[in-house]
Amino acid sequence: MVMFGTCSFPAMRRRFARLVLLAMLLFSASAVAQENTPEALTISRADRLKVFEEVWEAVNKHFFDPNFNGVNWAQVREQYRPQAEAAPNKTQLNETLQKMLNELRSSHLTMTVHVKFKKQTVEQELARKVSRRESLTFDAGMKYVRIDGKWVVSSVAEGSGAHSAGVQRGWALTHWNGESSGNDAPFTCELNQQVTARFLDWQGQEKQLALACKLYTDTGSPVERVTQTLADGTVCLRFDNFSPGTESWLIGQVAQARNAPALVLDLRNNHGGNLSVLEKCFAPFFSEPRVFGAYHERNGKQLPLKAKGQGKDAYRGRVVVLIDEKTASAAEIFAAGLQEAKRAVIVGRQSSGDVLGSLNYKLSHGFYVDIPIWDYQTANGARLEGRGVIPNEVVTLTLKDFLANRDLDILRAQESLLKP
């Protein structure tokens, strides 16, 4: 199944993908009997090289661009092979492989490693019982939003090192282990490593904290589908992915709102999803069938993205779409399609520019790699990868409004709807 988006991984995706490190504790009987925590992360030299070759060959065979974005992929292999060979454990190997993939300057090109730990050791670490299918992760436990050129903490995971250290939503991360936070995220660490992080708190005072990179429960991101009617009768529909079920929910909600003067479709923090779901989500906004763009395969074939209209049942009121820097993949295609068709006004901030179709490939020793196999161009010939969707009306997010939970995007959408 081809996925446009990152439904499996809640961590932030940038155009230049960074390490996504999830330690999935899948407690099979054999894993409990055979592995303890240190052993779970070890990997022999021969196996490191095996995984390295699997990754390189998979990309060499399946990457959407046979010219590898102008990069000498064979030369990259020679550059990173010694580094993979020298990696001391699975997490370092995963990071090395991700750095190799980053040379291609492409979204949807991400390494992941799943690790099995001994159940008893994990329970001792967490000081509680764990279920056999519980998923845990290890990192500092923070998510971020980019505001005024700073990485501002948007949430802190309960039970994480950041939570234990007292990190608060709204603090700005300035330094990670002595280095400036710069433009890249997320900020990674080793299991049981302590990192030094410096923040600016709400009053602009500097705080330096030691954060433990420890195990905590990965609650994931539950599917969010919310309907809200604003004071003027406008109906706001928020959904955070294009997973199966989204299409029926959206079609149903639009049908119920057929008499509403306007709809606001909130795609902020929507990371994308399934191609067939995306196609069906276009339908309620058009009376006739329409082509929105095309997917381009490595062999030169093109597959049109088209959707059926709903005839007289199509919604005919005004539409505003909200996007931000975390709007990605299928959500970007959806926003661009409505924008090019002049069916919606786009409000917010430029989207992430992560617009490729990818497949997940299982490798040996718990490693997986997402590889983009399709490029995409809109009906007007625009390539969204690396560019994203540019709003018709740009809204600048400020820390003051973020801390006050003041939704400037919704306010701008309402102002836009007042215009003739």
Keywords:
disordered N terminus; six-stranded antiparallel β-sheet; six-stranded mixed β-sheet; 12 helices
Please bin the fraction of helical residues: 25-40%
User: Helix count, per DSSP?
Assistant: 12
The overall strand count is: 21
Shape: globular
Give the radius of gyration: 22 Å
Molecular structure report:
- The chain is of the alpha+beta class and 420 residues long.
- It has helices at 29-34, 37-41, 45-62, 73-86, 90-102, 119-126, 161-165, 246-256, 275-282, 330-340, 399-403, 408-418, and strands at residues 3-5, 110-113, 136-139, 142-147, 150-156, 172-176, 179-180, 194-200, 206-212, 214-217, 225-229, 235-239, 262-266, 272-274, 290-297, 302-307, 318-323, 345-348, 357-362, 367-378, 393-394.
- The strands form five sheets. Strands 4, 5, 6, 7, 8 and 9 form a six-stranded antiparallel β-sheet that branches. The chain has a six-stranded mixed β-sheet with strand order 11-12-13-17-18-21, sandwiched between helices. Strands 2, 15, 16, 19 and 20 form a five-stranded antiparallel β-sheet that branches.
- Strand 12 (235-239), helix 8 and strand 13 form a beta-alpha-beta unit.
- 42% of the residues are buried.
- The model is unreliable at 1-37 (pLDDT under 50).
